[in-house]
Write a structure and sequence with these properties.
Two copies of one chain form a homodimer. Chain A is built from 18 helices and 31 strands. In chain A, helix 9 packs across helix 15. With 680 residues, chain A is an alpha/beta fold. In chain A, 28% of the residues lie in helices and 22% in strands. The radius of gyration of chain A is 30 Å and the shape is elongated. At the A-B interface, helix 3, helix 4 and helix 8 of A face helix 3, helix 4 and helix 8 of B. Chains A, B: InterPro entries: 2Fe-2S_ferredoxin-like_sf, 2Fe-2S_ferredoxin-type, Beta-grasp_dom_sf, Corrinoid_activation_enz, Raco-like_middle, Raco-like_middle_sf, RACo_C, RACo_linker. Chains A, B: One of its GO terms (molecular function) is iron-sulfur cluster binding. Chains A, B: This is Drug:proton antiporter.
Chain lengths: 680, 680
C-alpha cells in the first residue's frame, strides 16, 4: 500500500495527504487554506495562483521533487500566453498533486491578505471583505421543470460554492435575466454578507467572468470637508482619494449652528440632508472618474462622522443633539442600502455601513480613530487627539479607554481668523520669528522654500501670498510667545513694549504684521488680538477635554500623544506644546497619525472582523460628556494662558525657554476665557 | 401543605397550577395559551379579555367558585366606565387566580383567532399575522450611560416582551425620536416578521398606546382589473373592498400584447410598470378613504397576479415570458418594502409579499387559488377554473395537483364582443330565449326584474340598456343553442332558417337582436356571428386546458367543478355546460368560489403559516404548459363545437335536450377553430 502525497501550504503551515491527481485548489479548500478563487476552479479567473517550492525542507520534513506537481496543461499555457503568469507561479485549480509538495500561497492569492496602510505608523490591515465575487454556471430554463432564473442561480451557488441560501437585493433581480442570457448562462455574482454568519445577499451580477473588480468608498464626513478613499475590495488598494467641501457650511460653520438651523427653520434638517447627499453623489462621480472606474462597481461605502453629521446624513433631525441629554437616535452601527440612503450615484443595491457612535457628542469619527489607533492595545498611556472643527479625544491603554469630544471651533482650520484661509496654494503654513530681530520668515503651500531663501519670491509670484492656514496660525501664535511678542495671557505687546514696528496698533489692541502685500495688490497678513483669542478658545477646549479624561483616569501626565486629523500631520509638536494644545510630554513622544478617522473607515470597509471589533469596542469605552462637566469649565479657563496658567510644562521647558513678559496695562485683553462659547 | 389553584383554559384545554395571586395573563403566557396583549399587561389595551366560567365542570374535574378570581380592581372599573366591558368579561392582566378556575379565551382575544370567510363555501382562516403591535415603556436617555434611543427601545422589547433582537426599517428610525418624546417614553411599535423564526423588524411606531389599528391590503392584480381588500391585521376583518381598471390596458388588452409592447418599444416595460404602480397608489388612497383610515397605517400588502403582471409590477421586463421556455425571473415568493417597489401611497416601510409563481404561465394568482380552494385536500377529483382574461386551471385531489393556464382572451369579460361592456348598471347580465317564440327576456345590472315583468322599463329608464357583460354573453350564446337559433358549429341561422326576424342578416352572416334601443337613442344590442366566434375561442381554450390536465391525470371525467374568478359567481352552471366551457358533470357538482385569487391573497395577508404553506405547495404542483403541448391544439379544435364535437355530455343531456340543427349552407363560418390565437 502506498501513501498519498503530503501537501504542505505556507505561510499557514496547514498540511494533509491527498490522492495523486488532486488539484491544489481542492486540497487547499479541504484544509481550509485561504486560497482565493472567483471562477470556482475553472481556470479562468487566475485568482488561485500558487508557487510550488522545490528542494529539501527539513523544517517540514519533506523533499520536493521537480515533478511534485503535474506539468503545465493547456489552460495554463493559454492563460500564460494571454495574460502572462509570473515565473514559478501555477494556477491552483489546474496543477495537480503528484508527489509530496510545499506550496506557497502568495499574499495576492489570499482572500484575507494583509494590506500595508500608508499611515505614518506603517501598520497592516487584514482583508476580510463583506462583498465577494463568485463565478457560476447556471442551468438553462426548462419548461418541463419550471423554476425562476434566480432560483437556478441560487441552485448553482449551492452546488458550485456550497452556499446554502441567498437573499436578493430587489434591484439586482430586475436586471438578472438579460445578464444570464448575455453571459450564456455563465455569470459572476457579488454576494454581500453583513456578518460572516449572515445569509449572503446577491447585490450585483455581470455576464461571464467579471474582471473589472469591485470597489468601496471609505468616507470621512466632516463638518467642513468630506474626504473619500476609493478602495479595491479585493486587494484593499486605494485607487483614488478625493475631497469636497461639506455644502452644509452654508447653513452654519459649526455643528451647533447647524443644529440651530434645523431648530429654527422648518424643513431645515431635510434641506441639510439633501445638501450632503448631493455632495456625496458629486464626490462619488468625481472619485470614480479620477480612478477611471465605473461608479456602478462601487458596491460598499463606509461612513465615519460626528453625531450631527451622522444624523443629517441619515435624514434624522439632529435637534436632540443640541440639548442635554444629547440623545442619539441610534448609537449602534447602521447598515442600509444606497437606495434607502438616497445616494443616486451609487448602485441602489450598494451596501452602506455607518460606524457606531460612542455618545451624543462622541461620534462614529471617534470610533474610527479608536479602530485605527487602537488606544486600548497600547501598553503605555496614550492620548489621541483628532483635531478638526470638533476635537475627538481618546485616552487609554490596555486597562481602559476614555473618550470625549471638545468644541474647538473652526479656528484650527483657519476659519474665524482675520487672515485665515483653508490650506491651499498661497497660504502661509509655517512661520518662524527671530527672537532677536522679531522679523518673521515663512513658508507657503505650493513652495518648499522659506521666504528668506533665494528664489522664494519668484516661485510664489503666481499664487501670491493669500492668507494663513490652520497650521500657520498655530505656529504664528506659538512663535509670538517664543519671541516675547505676546505674553502668557495672550496679549500682543505694542511697538514700544516689543521694540518692533511689526507690532502695530489695531484699535485698542495690537496686531503683528507677518507680510504686507499691499504694494503688489495683495493682502496685509497680520495676527490680530482677535486671532489670538480664537486660537486660545480652541486650544483651551482641546486641552480641557484632554485634562478631563486625565482626571477621570486619575493621572497628571500621559506617556505619549498622537495627533490625528488631516491637519495633525502639519502641526509641529513643539509649537503645539508651546501653545498648550496638548499636555506636556517629551517631544519625541508626540507623533502624527494622519487622517486616523479616514484610516478607520478604510479598515472597516475592508474587514467585517474590524466592524465587529469596533462595535464591541465602543461599548467598552468610557464616555465623558464635556458639556455638563463643571470641571471642564475650570480646565478651560486655566488653559487660556499660553501654555497654561497653572500646569507645569517641564518637558517643554527643557526644550525652549519662554520669555517672562507682561503687556497688560489694564486697558484690554484677558476676557477670552470668559466668553460664551459654542460647540462646533 | 396546600396545593396551588388549578387554572384550565378553554378552548385550548391547557391547564396548570399557579400560586394564588397570579394574573390570568401570566398563567396564559406560561402555558402558551393564545391570549392577546399589546400593552404587555398594563391594563390599557384591553386585548386580553377573558371570561371565567363558574359552577361544576365534571369534564375538567373542577368546581369553580364565585370567588375563583380576584374581584374587580380599579383598572377594570375605570376601563368599564370608559369603554364598557362585556358582561362576564375580565381583563386577563388584572384578574388574579384565587381558587381553581376555568377560563374561556373568546375568539377576539386570540392572536391566532379564526376568521370566517365570506366566500360561497363558508370556510375559516386562522390569523397568524406577520405584523403585530407591542406597547413598551422606554428608559429615558442618560448622559452618563449614553445609548441611542433605538437601542433603548430594543432593550425595552427585550425586558418587557422577551424579544431578544430586532432590526429596524431605516425610515422608521428617522421618526423615532419625536415619537418617543411625544409619548413621554411610552410607545407602541409594530414589528414585522417575514417568518416566525425571523428577527422581527421595527416598521412603525406611535406615541403611547396605538389604538387606531394596523391594516393590510390583499391585492388581486389582474390584466384588466385590480381588486383590493383592505383588512384589519388584528381581526382579519375586511374594512373595504375596491377595484380599479388596470391602466396597462392602453398598452394592450391581453398579456401577450403587453409583452409585445415591451419588446417593440424601448422603455415600454418601464412605462407599464410606472402605470400600474400609479394605479396602485390611487387605489390605496381611495380604499383607505373609503374605510376612513389613514393610509399610513397600511403596513402590509400581499399581491397575487399572473406572471406578466408579476414581472411588470416588480419592474422586470417580461420579454422572457413571451417566448419558450417562458423563464420567470424568479418563481419563489418575493418580499420587499413599499419603498423598494416604488409605491408612494403606502408607508415606505410597509412590507410587500408577492405569492410564488407556479410556472412561466401559471402565476401567483393560480397559487392563490390553490391556497384558497385547496384542491390538494379534496377527497374527490376537483377541477378549479379561475375565469379571467387568462384562465388558471387546477385539477387535483389528495393524491396530486396539476395546474395550467389557458389564454381565454377577454371575451368572457365582455371585451371583443360587439355590444360587450364591463359589468356595470345597464349591462345585460342574464338572458333567456323562449324556445317556441324565439323571443328574449333579460335582466340588467341594477334592476332585479326581468324585462318581461311589470315595472322593468320604468326601473331601467335611468341607466338605459347599454350593452352586455361577460355573464350575459355566455348565457346569450348558450340560450341561442338551446333555442335552436345557433347550430353546434356556432352558426346563427337566418330568419328563414329559424323562423324569427330577430335573426337578421349581418353581411354574409347573421346576428340575433336582443334589444333595439334606437327609438330611445340607445344601442341596438345583438349577438353577432363574430361574438359567437370570440366566445368559442375563449371556451375552447378553457375546455382544452382542463382536458389537458385530465389527460395528464389519466381521467375522462372529474367529480366536481369549482368556478372561481369575480365572474365565476355569475355564470349559471347549466349555461356554462351547454356552452362546453367545462367538462360534463352533474349540475349540483358545479359550485362558485367567488374571487378565489383575492381570497388567497387575503389568507396570505393574515397568516405567515399560509405563506409557508403555499410556498411549499407550489413545488408539489405539476405544471402543464399549454403553449407547447400539441394535444392542446387538438383539444382546442375539438372544443370549438357547442358543447363539443366529440366528447359526450351525458349529465348535460339529462337536464336539457339540445336541438339538432345545422345552418351551414357552405357560405361562411366554421373557420373559428383554425384562427391563429394569441395568449392573454
Amino acid at each position: 500500500m502506498t501513501t498519498d502525497p503530503l501537501v504542505i501550504f505556507t505561510p499557514s503551515g496547514k498540511r494533509g495527504r491527498f490522492p495523486v491527481g488532486t488539484p491544489v485548489l481542492t486540497a487547499a479548500r479541504q484544509l481550509g487554506v485561504d486560497l482565493d478563487s472567483v471562477c470556482g476552479g475553472r481556470g479562468i479567473c487566475s485568482k488561485c495562483q500558487i508557487t510550488p517550492a522545490y528542494g529539501d525542507f527539513p523544517k517540514h520534513g519533506v523533499q520536493v521533487a521537480e515533478d511534485a506537481l503535474s506539468g503545465w496543461n493547456a489552460v495554463e499555457e493559454r492563460y500564460d500566453s494571454k495574460r502572462g503568469l509570473k515565473t514559478g507561479r501555477r494556477l491552483g485549480c489546474q496543477a495537480t498533486v503528484q508527489r509530496d509538495v510545499v506550496i506557497d500561497v502568495p499574499p495576492e492569492s489570499q482572500v484575507h491578505r494583509q494590506v500595508v496602510r500608508k499611515a505614518a505608523a506603517a501598520r497592516t490591515l487584514q482583508m476580510d471583505p463583506a462583498t465577494r465575487l463568485y463565478y457560476v454556471e447556471v442551468d438553462q430554463p426548462d419548461m418541463h421543470e419550471p423554476t425562476g432564473d434566480l432560483e437556478r442561480v441560487a441552485r448553482a451557488l449551492r452546488a458550485q460554492w456550497g452556499i446554502e441560501e441567498i437573499s436578493t437585493e430587489f434591484s439586482t433581480l430586475a436586471g438578472l435575466q438579460p445578464i444570464l442570457r448575455k453571459g450564456d448562462w455563465r455569470i459572476t455574482v457579488a454576494l454581500h454578507k453583513s456578518d460572516n454568519s449572515a445569509i449572503p445577499r446577491l447585490v450585483a451580477a455581470w455576464p461571464g467572468l467579471h474582471e473589472a473588480g469591485i470597489y468601496g468608498l471609505a468616507i470621512d464626513l466632516g463638518s467642513t470637508t468630506i474626504a473619500a478613499h476609493l478602495t479595491d475590495l479585493d486587494t484593499g488598494a486605494v485607487m483614488a482619494s478625493s475631497g469636497i467641501m461639506n455644502p452644509q457650511i452654508r447653513f452654519g460653520e459649526d455643528l451647533m449652528s447647524r443644529v440651530s438651523y434645523a431648530m429654527m427653520n422648518p424643513g431645515g434638517a431635510t434641506e441639510m440632508t439633501r445638501a450632503v447627499r448631493e455632495a456625496l453623489d458629486t464626490l462619488t462621480i468625481e472619485i470614480a472618474a479620477e480612478a477611471g472606474i465605473d461608479a456602478g462597481l462601487i458596491l460598499e461605502t463606509v461612513f465615519v462622522c460626528n453625531p450631527v453629521m451622522h444624523h443629517l446624513l441619515l435624514g434624522i433631525d439632529p435637534v436632540e443633539l443640541g440639548q442635554a441629554p444629547f440623545a442619539l437616535a441610534t448609537s449602534d452601527a447602521v447598515t442600509l442600502s444606497a437606495r434607502e440612503l438616497g445616494l443616486t450615484a451609487l448602485p441602489g443595491a450598494a451596501q452602506i455601513y455607518v460606524l457606531p457612535c460612542i455618545a451624543g457628542h462622541v461620534g462614529a469619527d471617534a470610533a474610527a480613530v479608536a479602530l485605527s489607533e487602537q488606544p486600548g492595545k497600547s501598553e503605555d498611556l496614550v492620548l489621541v487627539v483628532d483635531v478638526g472643527t470638533n476635537a475627538e479625544i481618546l485616552l487609554g491603554d490596555t486597562t481602559r479607554v476614555l473618550a470625549c469630544s471638545s468644541p474647538t471651533g473652526p479656528a484650527f482650520e483657519g476659519a474665524q481668523i482675520s487672515s485665515g484661509q483653508r490650506a491651499a496654494p498661497g497660504a502661509i503654513e509655517a512661520i518662524r520669528i527671530d527672537p532677536v530681530t522679531k522679523e518673521p520668515r515663512f513658508r507657503v503651500i505650493g513652495c518648499d522654500l522659506w521666504s528668506d531663501q533665494d528664489g522664494f519670491w519668484q516661485e510664489v509670484a503666481q499664487t501670491g501670498i493669500t492668507g494663513i492656514c490652520g497650521s500657520g496660525i498655530i505656529e504664528a501664535v506659538a512663535e509670538l510667545r517664543i519671541a516675547g511678542l505676546m505674553d502668557p495671557s495672550g496679549l500682543i505687546g505694542s511697538a514700544a513694549q516689543t521694540g518692533t514696528d511689526r507690532c502695530e496698533a489695531d484699535g485698542r489692541t495690537h496686531a503683528y504684521l507677518i507680510h504686507d502685500g499691499s504694494a503688489e495688490g495683495g493682502p496685509r497678513i497680520t495676527v490680530t488680538q482677535g486671532d489670538i483669542r480664537a486660537i486660545q478658545l480652541a486650544k483651551s477646549a482641546l486641552y480641557a477635554g484632554a485634562r478631563l479624561l486625565m482626571d477621570e483616569r486619575g493621572v497628571d501626565r500621559v506617556d505619549r500623544v498622537v495627533l490625528a486629523g488631516a491637519f495633525g500631520a502639519h502641526i509641529s509638536a513643539l509649537h503645539a506644546m508651546v501653545l498648550g494644545m496638548i499636555p506636556d510630554v517629551a517631544l519625541d513622544k508626540v507623533s502624527s497619525a494622519g487622517n486616523a478617522a479616514g484610516t478607520g473607515a478604510r479598515i472597516a470597509l475592508c474587514s467585517l472582523a474590524a466592524r465587529r471589533e469596533i462595535e464591541r469596542m465602543v461599548h467598552r469605552i468610557t464616555k465623558v460628556e464635556t458639556a455638563i462637566e463643571p470641571r471642564f469649565q475650570e480646565h478651560f479657563v486655566a488653559a487660556n494662558a499660553i501654555p497654561h496658567a497653572t500646569d507645569p510644562f517641564p518637558e517643554l521647558a527643557s526644550q525652549v525657554s519662554l520669555p517672562v513678559v507682561s503687556f497688560n496695562t489694564g486697558s484690554g485683553g484677558g476676557e477670552g476665557g470668559r466668553r460664551r462659547r459654542r460647540r462646533g
